[in-house]
Amino acid sequence: MGDGIFTNRMFHEWKMNRKLVSSGFKFSMLKSFVPIFYEEAKFLSQVLYEKRENNTDECEISWAISMATLEMIGRTALDVKFNAQKNAKHVFVENLHVILKVWEYRMLHPWFLNKSIFQLSSLKRKHDISQLKIYNFIDDLVQRKITGLKNNINNLEEHNKESIGLKSKSFIEIMLENRHQMTFNQLRDEIITVMIGGQDTTGMTNACIIFMLAHHQDVQNKVLEELLTIFSSGDPDRQLTYDDLQKMEYLERVIKETMRHFPPLPLFGRNVEKETMIGGYLIPAGSTFLIFPALLHFNAQIYPDPEKFNPDNFLPEACRSRHPYSFLPFSAGYRNCPGYKYAMLQMKTVISTLVRSYRFYPSDKCPKPENLRIMLSTTLKFVDGCYVKIEART
Ligand code: HEM
Predict the structure, then answer these.
(1) Does residue 358 form part of some domain?
(2) Closest residue (by CA) to atom 6 of ligand 1?
């Protein structure tokens, strides 16, 4: 992610670039992404059904969901189809996987976090080759977009754009229009930051939501009930709209409760510039302050019976009774997640589309949520995959 806003430590540079990145998350932009989310979610439901084992209905869902969210972010951020759900080989996808694997390896073998040791390793060479390929791909895309913008035809010809269903502009186009003094390298870093920030996080959460629905049939029933009400008039199989998503209040609570249990970024850090007292403890200047949403979310003083999966923890009155920073999956403050609304729309689309088609049950391969093994690498990850049983609704 280079000097993208996620990793940038220069406050003024971050502030300027954050404004630019945020311009890509405007309401009108997000609304125009919904048909793309829906199209890919429909495709995902087909992929999952075909992937399940015929005799047991069991299915490992996390990989297919991750490919679907990658496709969504590719189409909305870059205006590019990777065909990731069809397992097509794409230079960006293949090399992003290599880089994330290297990153994961370094997290799990922390001596490789030491720059000198990493520099000497074959891992670094592997990383650099993939990084270069990603850079070349993005640079080439940016060049084509610029030519397109200059010719006033928005890079891809209109008919091509229509064919991938993107009616509005993508992030890359918005950034190019507003970039002013931003260098190409910076622009590239911001684009890669958005791509990485938006993929694994929503992929992991979507898989966890399906897993929790499979293990809490009462909650799954309520989600279905809400969807049946929303889609009760007209064709029950119709395409969902942005307005439908606004009505999915219970599903929103389920998503939040899942993120309380499995915050995709379970810890993040802040540099302490000035000596500060917090809760009677002195935090020295120059230290790094780690915030663990994963621990905070299980604090019994904040969430009574914290181990219980209870979407009512997010009823409006329950939220009002807590400190606003008691729920931090998207962080908070200046450096909170700018993709929050994008993520909620995308996750609501994916889950509602899957629940409209299927009922999910626990798999024998992972009979209880307590058996679900997760680990921290770049984000939370499944150690042995995420299994559920899938049954078509009749
Ligand atoms: C379930 C979904 C998501 C979760 C849980 C999540 C979580 C977070 C968190 C915790 C941070 C702040 C990290 C910190 O404070 O150090 C963050 C930052 C960020 N996220 Fe997300 N995110 C999600 C989805 C997305 C999406 C969909 C996008 C883009 C399409 C995105 C783009 C970013 C970017 C660019 C930053 C850096 C912001 C900055 O430092 O100014 N995220 N995210």
Answers:
(1) yes
(2) 330
Pocket of ligand 1 (CB under 6 A): 5-6, 18, 21, 193-194, 197-198, 201-202, 205, 264-265, 268, 329-331, 335, 337-339, 342-343
Number of domains present in the structure of the chain:
1
Collapsing DSSP to helix, strand or coil, 60 comes out as strand
Rounded CA separation 232/47 (Å):
26
In terms of residue numbers, what domain contains 170?
A: 11-265+297-392
Residue 2 lies in a domain: no
CATH of the domain at 68: 1.10.630.10
Q: Which helix (H) or strand (E) holds 108?
A: helix 91-108
How far apart (Å, rounded) are the C-alpha atoms in residues 222 and 191? 38
Most informative mutation of 19, 172, 337 for ligand 1 (most atoms within 8 A of CB): 337
Q: Which amino acid is at 351?
A: I
The per-residue pLDDT for range 264-322, each reduced to its tens digit, is: 998 888 889 999 998 899 999 999 989 999 899 999 999 999 999 999 999 999 999 99
In a domain? residue 282: no
pLDDT in tens, 17-65: 888 888 888 888 899 999 999 999 999 999 999 999 989 999 999 999 9
**131 in a structural domain:** yes
Q: What is the pLDDT of residue 68?
A: 95
Q: Are 33 and 345 in contact (CB under 8 A)?
A: yes
Within the chain, which residues score under 70 in pLDDT?
Answer: 152-168
